[in-house]
Amino acid sequence: MQSFIIRQIRERMPLVHCITNYVTVNDVANVLLAVGARPIMADDPAEAAEITALCAGLCLNIGTLNERTIPSMLAAGKAARALGRPVVLDPVGAGASRLRTETALRIMDEVHPAAVRGNISEIRTLAAGSGRTQGVDAAAADAVTEENLAACADFVRAFAARAGTIVAVTGAIDLVTDGARCYAVRSGRPEMGCVTGTGCQLSSLLTAALAAAPADALAAAAAATALMGVAGEQAWTHMAAHEGNASYRTHIIDAVDGMTDETLAAAMRVTEL
Question: Which ranges of 183-260 would DSSP assign to H, the alpha helix?
Answer without folding.
Answer: 198-212, 217-237, 245-258
